[in-house]
Amino acid sequence: MSARDLAGTVAVVTGAGSGVGRAVAIALAEAGGLPALVGRSREPLEETAGLVAGAGGRPLVVAADVTEETAVTDAFARAAEAFGGIDAAILAAGIGRYGPIETYALADWEATLATNLTGVFLCAKAAIPHLRRRGGGAIVAVSSGAGKQGYPELGAYSASKFGVMGLMQGLAGEVAGDGIKVSAITPGSILTPFGGRSEAAKREAMASDPGKKYLEAEDVAAAILFLLRQPRRAWTQEMNLWPF
Ligand SMILES: NC(=O)c1ccc[n+]([C@@H]2O[C@H](COP(=O)([O-])OP(=O)(O)OC[C@H]3O[C@@H](n4cnc5c(N)ncnc54)[C@H](OP(=O)(O)O)[C@@H]3O)[C@@H](O)[C@H]2O)c1
To answer: Is the pTM of this model over 0.85?
Structure first.
């Protein structure tokens, strides 16, 4: 595999301001790809853009909220215009608000579903015509281990991520004929600021409890790039990625 084997691959990456989305954007740039960086806050996206440029990439920053259909449609249109088309949509934007259902606020439930599930729906919907125009491509949703198994205090989060699994399974059959591969990756815990706990706090937890293990964001990015690298004849529908 050559170092720049994804040269020219255009990917819209949501959640690109930190964690998995940022790691995907950098890894893609290192492989010669062209990431369009999507997230709500411009400042972290600009930071990612600097890292992407440092990795030899030519980043595009598009601040957009994945829960807003017009913003999402515009973001994909801008990426297609800037780079001449889109080959992949990597959907990593998400929020983690945890707590017992008995006291869980309706507003948190709605925000969780809007971001983690409706956001994936809107981005996938916006991506399809661009990918079809390119003769095929990939939609990769970052679900979670909690998208296959419920855990106490993760009920709302799990509901959103289980929803992503069903959405991706249904969509896969709709667009396979267009050469579009739809995949979901279901990682276990990752060392990112996700879920209201800093990366440093997670590192401390890992240091004090040998049983506590995390993936690095780069591990998830490498797995996602593996999906983009698969030959056209091969499709990974679901990838379960655990810390080991
Ligand atoms: N960390 C874990 O342990 C873990 C485990 C399994 C799966 N996951 C999943 O992995 C994905 C990436 O998470 P991460 O760990 O990289 O967390 P992260 O570092 O917190 O990144 C999440 C990103 O999503 C963006 N985002 C949130 N709401 C958004 C919205 N409405 N519109 C656009 N962007 C939005 C955030 O930027 P803004 O706030 O600026 O918009 C942020 O950059 C998530 O889908 C998460 O559910 C995480």
So the answer is: yes
